[in-house]
Amino acid sequence: MFEAAGADVAFLFARVLFGGILAFMGLNHFLNLESMAGYAEFKGLPAPTLSVLASGGLLIFGGLSLISGVLPAIGAGALALFLLVSAVKMHDFWNAEGEDAQNEMTSFLKNVYGAGAALAFLAVSNATWPYALNIGL
Fold first, then answer.
1. Tens-place pLDDT, residues 115-124
2. In the chain, at which end, N or C, are there fewer CB atoms within 10 A of the end residue's CB?
C-alpha cells in the first residue's frame, strides 16, 4: 500500500498534521473550558461542561491514535463521528445571519472535510502503517 517513493513519509506527515491539529484542538477544550462550555450551552448541548471535557478527550485520543498507530480504527471512527455531529449541531450556519452565518459555515465545512479525512484513515486502518506502533484490536 505504501510502496510508492515517499509514500511512507507522506503518510506519516499526514498523520502528524491531521492528528496533531485535532489533539491540539482537544487540549484547547481543557484550556478554554469556561468559554467553550458557554458556547456549548448557547448551542443547546446538554451538560455543556461535561460535553466539552468529553469532546476534548475524544479529540486528544483520536489525534494521538492516528499519530501513533494505536487503535487507529477506533480513533479515526470516533473522530469522523464527532466531526460530523459537531458540524451539524455546533455549526448550524443555516440558523445564523450575516457574519455569524459565514463563520459558522466555515467551521461546518472544516468539520465536514475533517470527517472525510478521518474516514480515509479509517479505510486504511487495517493496513500496516509505516512508522507506527500498529496496535489494533
1. 999 999 999 9
2. C
Could you give the dihedral angle defined by the CA atoms of residues 71, 74, 121 and 66, in that order, rounded to the nearest 10 degrees?
-50
Q: For 60-64, which contacts have Cβ atoms below 8 Å and span 24 or more sequence positions?
A: 60/23, 60/26, 60/27, 61/26, 62/19, 62/22, 62/23, 62/26, 62/118, 63/18, 63/19, 63/20, 63/21, 63/22, 63/23, 63/24, 63/25, 63/26, 64/19, 64/23
Show the DSSP H helices in 32-97 as ranges.
33-42, 48-68, 72-90
How big is the chain by its Cα radius of gyration, in Å? Answer: 16
* Cell matching residue 69: 498507530
Taking the complete model, does pTM exceed 0.85, yes or no? yes
Each residue of 25-47: pLDDT tens digit? 999 999 999 999 999 999 999 99
Q: Using alpha carbons, list the distances in angstroms from residue 75 to 86, 98, 117, 118, 130.
A: 16, 36, 12, 9, 17
Q: Does the structure show a pLDDT above 90 at 71?
A: yes
What is the rounded distance in angstroms from the CA atom of residue 137 to the CA atom of residue 124? 14
Q: Cα 16 vs. chain centroid, distance in angstroms?
A: 13
